[in-house]
Amino acid sequence: MASLDLCDLRLQDDGRFPWVVLTPRRAGAVELADLSYADQCRWLVEVDLAGRLVRALGEAWSRPVEKLNIANLGNVTPQLHWHIVGRRSDDACWPGPVWGQGSPEPLGQETVENARTIFAEFAKQG
Amino acid sequence: MASLDLCDLRLQDDGRFPWVVLTPRRAGAVELADLSYADQCRWLVEVDLAGRLVRALGEAWSRPVEKLNIANLGNVTPQLHWHIVGRRSDDACWPGPVWGQGSPEPLGQETVENARTIFAEFAKQG
Hints:
Chain A has 126 residues and is an alpha+beta fold. Chain A has helices spanning 37-60, 109-125; strands at 2-3, 7-11, 19-24, 67-72, 82-87.
C-alpha cells in the first residue's frame, strides 16, 4: 500500500481487524537485531505511524481500536516483518492472538480504496 | 529477575520455551507509543539484550533458538509489556504463537538459578 523510508506497509486482507504489516527493505533481515541501530530507530517511527493508521482504520470502520497488538513472529515467513493489529474486546479472537485463528474475511475493493485515502492523509502529515 | 535501566525483566515460568518478559517502569504506559521516543530507543537496547539472553538460555537448555518471537499483546494485562520468546521448529506450538496454547511447564529451581547466572554474565558485559 505504501513505501515508507525503511519499510513497505501492506494492509492485511482480513476485515476482522484493522491490520497492517511492516516489512523493512533490508535483504536477509530476519530478526529485529539484523537491522542496524539507526534502522531500528527509524523502525520505531514507522511502527508509530502504522499504529496511528490502524487506529484511523478502526475509526473509519466504526470499530475504534482498544489495544494494539505489535508482533514479529516470522515462524512461517522468515523475512523480518511486523504485524500491527487493532484489537477490540468484541473481536473474533479476543483476548487471544489473531495469528492462525479462524478464517480471514477478505476486504472489499471499496474498503481498500478507503484505506489508501486514509493513508494518503497520514503521508501528508509526514 | 533483573531491573534494567528502563524495564523489569522476568523469566516466564514455562520450560517449553526460553521466554522473558520486559516491562517498562513507566506508570500508566499501555502502548509502545505511550513511551517517550528516548524511552523507546532505550527499549530497543533492552529488547536486544533480552533476545540475546533468550538465545543463551536456549543454548543452556540444549535447545538453540531458531527464531525469536517479539510481541506486545496486552489484551489480558494492559500494562505495557513485551514477550521475547525463543522458538524452534520442534517446539510445542510451532509454527503458531505461544500465547494461550497448551499448558505451561513450570521451571525447576535449578533452571531458574542457572538463568540468573547466565543473566549475570550478560549484565557484566553491559
